[in-house]
Amino acid sequence: MNVTKGGNNDARQFIPRWSPGRPFTDRAAALRSLRHGRGADLVIVIISGVAGSGKTTVGAMLAGRLSWPFADADDFHPAANVAKMRAGIPLTDEDRKPWLQAIGAWMDEHIARGESGVVGCSALKRSYRDELLGGRPEARLVFLATDREVLTRRLAARVGHFFPEQLLASQLAALEPPGPDEHVIRVVPADTPAATVDAIIALLFPGGPPGRDGDHEAEA
């Protein structure tokens, strides 16, 4: 089945919104059919890193610069996960399964509509990154490599966030830095979020950032 750029209603009907317990095999098959004829400029950018790395600030700023929607992965955690983190209890791989599935569903919905987007997500382990990137050639992952001193300082300054400073050690212990075979873009954050965004755009789009319609801006 071919779906043209203007066929957004058909795409939404063909790929229903994900819900807990829903199998993903039909979604994967649907996305493969919808990608036929899709423009090469469709991109879902995942800004990753441990808590305090600046992924939400940088991700939201990147999305604003590109006029793309932004999603914060914190918003995809089920209530039970939030309660555990507030209590200072590290999440397990099992806890993170529905969270990763919900993030993947958000990505799939935008891909199905032909819309680029940005999502901020820790993606600490290779298995998490593989789940988010697997079967989604439109996805690109940027890892913010921030040193521990900066992370500690930022978390100590947070007010009202459910992630307590004492959980940083558990995140760093769980972190599996991206390997050279993962095709992940590693960025050491600059002095300002704006400068970090400039660096990410230059690495993602050597030919210049895409315009609002997804096509790269014409050079002057």
Give the helix/strand layout.
Blueprint (H helix, E strand, L loop, with lengths): L7 H7 L10 H10 L9 E5 L6 H12 L3 E3 L6 H8 L6 H20 L4 E4 L5 H8 L5 E6 L3 H10 L10 H7 L10 E3 L5 H12 L16
Parallel strand pairs: 1-3, 1-4, 2-3, 4-5
What does this structure look like?
By secondary structure, this protein is an alpha/beta fold. It has one domain (31-202): 3-Layer(aba) Sandwich (Rossmann fold). It has helices spanning 8-14, 25-34, 55-66, 79-86, 93-112, 126-133, 148-157, 168-174, 193-204; strands spanning 44-48, 70-72, 117-120, 139-144, 185-187. The protein has a 5-stranded parallel sheet with strand order 2-3-1-4-5, sandwiched between helices. The radius of gyration is 18 Å and the shape is globular.
- The name CATH uses for the topology is Rossmann fold
| Quaternary organization | single chain
CATH architecture: 3-Layer(aba) Sandwich
SS elements, strand count = 5
Largest sheet: 5 strands, parallel
Question: What's the N-to-C terminus distance?
Answer: 39 Å
Widest sheet: strand ordering: 2-3-1-4-5
**Superfamily (CATH H level) name:** P-loop containing nucleotide triphosphate hydrolases
